[in-house]
Specification:
The protein is globular, with a radius of gyration of 16 Å. It has nine helices and no strands.
Length: 153
């Protein structure tokens, strides 16, 4: 007979393996994104009761920074939920970081932001997956993967 392990036994191991460590901003722009993200998500909590931004967004950003080391991707990791959760606009995200950096961050955040009401009658999840695929940008895929990875832990 086959012995099947439960997810409760696997989850702690995954959390240890995927722990990117404490968040450290390696550039002034990343530090500013962290400060702004804290402001945008102030008072928001995870289901566990932990502060949302400091536990989720910072984890996503640190994971990305360790994996890729790209400033725009790390900032997008910090701000990936800011449009959905705080109502921040992509234009303000773009303008907050001057030049090409702001444009790239806004583009990535746009790519990972869920579609609220699909016009074609499909589910929100299917419409969002279609949107991500249409971006054809590795940054969008990797930021979304980091986001979903942390949600699984």
């Amino acid at each position: 007979m086959v012995q099947i392990e439960t997810i409760r036994e696997l989850r702690p191991k995954l959390a240890e393996e995927f722990n990117p460590g404490e968040f450290v901003a390696r550039t002034p722009a990343i530090a500013e994104a962290y400060r702004w993200g804290q402001q945008l998500h102030a008072g928001q909590k995870r289901l566990s009761g932990e502060p949302y931004f400091e536990t989720h967004c910072a984890w996503v950003a640190m994971f990305l920074d360790n994996l890729v080391g790209n400033e725009a991707w790390t900032i997008a990791g910090l701000l990936h939920d800011s449009v959905e959760d705080s109502g921040e606009s992509l234009a303000r995200i773009r303008d907050h970081f001057p030049g090409p950096l702001g444009a790239e961050v806004a583009h990535i955040v746009d790519g990972v932001t869920k579609i609220s009401n699909p016009r074609d009658g499909s589910s929100r999840e299917i419409a969002t997956l279609r949107k991500i695929a249409q971006f054809r940008d590795p940054a969008v895929f990797v930021v979304k993967l980091a986001d979903k990875s942390h949600n699984m832990l």
